[in-house]
């Protein structure tokens, strides 16, 4: 509905009241949130393993919806096109979540039936004070990791004959290229406004928030489509 109102020119996103602290955000009691090390690891060869994988991805997409809305709510005085970009992302993340929820139901499960962790939202909390840090850490790091790992998940799902789940992940990864590209574009725009070098600023922020704990390997093709330069990818690999 919000996306339709935006397209019709009936929605504006410049709020003058100071945003509430991100700590005021509340989520449902389900799924139960645990330490990532407590999450079970299962083979995708089993139905239970595929359910666990799809549930984990659904949880990421659920948080991604809230992240898109939080960036709209929290960071004010941006051009209207900025809010339009994140409204479109919120809409696509909601579609992804709906596809995954339906697939879980097809497999006799549902979102919330398994435990999950709040790592992605912790990154949102850490970067709530600065839009540049949010763009570096969420679309250009956390979401970009999806570009690296999702193609391999697709291959594994196809390898065990689960084409329905594989097709959902294909839809997701294709859309996520655009999401990371939008994050890259606005990251560069704000760096230009602040007279900062985008590449060095990106790695400074990774070092500040992740202490250099960067995971690979990296999908060069998808990352370049999403706005990463060859040099950035080389520097990530060096970490």
Radius of gyration: 18 Å
Number of E strands = 0
- What's the CATH class, please? Mainly Alpha
What do the pLDDT scores average to? 91
Given the helix and strand composition, which structural class is it?
A: mainly alpha
Coarse shape: globular
**First-last Cα distance:** 43 Å
Q: What CATH architecture label applies?
A: Up-down Bundle
CATH H-level superfamily: Ferritin, core subunit, four-helix bundle
Provide the fold topology.
Blueprint: H1 2-7, H2 47-74, H3 80-106, H4 119-126, H5 131-159, H6 163-193, H7 198-210, H8 220-225, H9 230-238
Describe the structure.
By secondary structure, the protein is mainly α. It has a single domain (41-238), classed as Ferritin, core subunit, four-helix bundle (Ferritin), CATH 1.20.1260.10. It has helices spanning 2-7, 47-74, 80-106, 119-126, 131-159, 163-193, 198-210, 220-225, 230-238. The radius of gyration is 18 Å and the shape is globular. It starts with a helix and ends with a helix.
Q: Descriptors for this entry?
A:
66% helix, 239 residues, single chain, mainly alpha, Ferritin, globular
Question: Concise description?
Answer:
With 239 residues, this protein is mostly helical. The protein has nine helices and no strands. It has helices at 2-7, 47-74, 80-106, 119-126, 131-159, 163-193, 198-210, 220-225, 230-238.
């Amino acid at each position: 509905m919000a996306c339709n109102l935006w397209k019709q020119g009936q929605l504006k996103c410049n709020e003058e009241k100071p945003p509430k602290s991100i700590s005021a955000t509340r989520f449902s009691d389900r799924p139960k949130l645990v330490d990532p090390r407590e999450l079970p690891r299962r083979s995708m060869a089993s139905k239970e393993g595929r359910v666990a994988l799809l549930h984990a991805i659904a949880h990421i997409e659920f948080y991604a919806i809230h992240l898109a809305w939080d960036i709209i709510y929290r960071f004010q005085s941006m051009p209207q096109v900025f809010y339009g970009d994140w409204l479109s992302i919120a809409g696509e993340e909601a579609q992804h979540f709906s596809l995954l929820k339906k697939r879980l139901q097809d497999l006799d499960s549902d979102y919330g039936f398994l435990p999950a962790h709040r790592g992605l939202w912790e990154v949102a909390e850490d970067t709530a004070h600065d839009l540049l840090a949010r763009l570096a850490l969420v679309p250009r790091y956390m979401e970009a990791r999806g570009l690296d790992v999702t193609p391999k998940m697709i291959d594994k799902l196809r390898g065990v004959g689960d084409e329905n789940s594989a097709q959902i992940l294909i839809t997701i990864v294709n859309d996520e290229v655009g999401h990371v590209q939008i994050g890259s574009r606005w990251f560069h725009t704000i760096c230009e406004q602040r007279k900062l070098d985008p590449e060095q600023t990106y790695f400074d922020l990774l070092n500040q928030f992740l202490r250099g704990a960067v995971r690979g390997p990296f999908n060069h093709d998808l990352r370049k489509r999403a706005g990463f330069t060859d040099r950035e990818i080389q520097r990530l690999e060096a970490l």
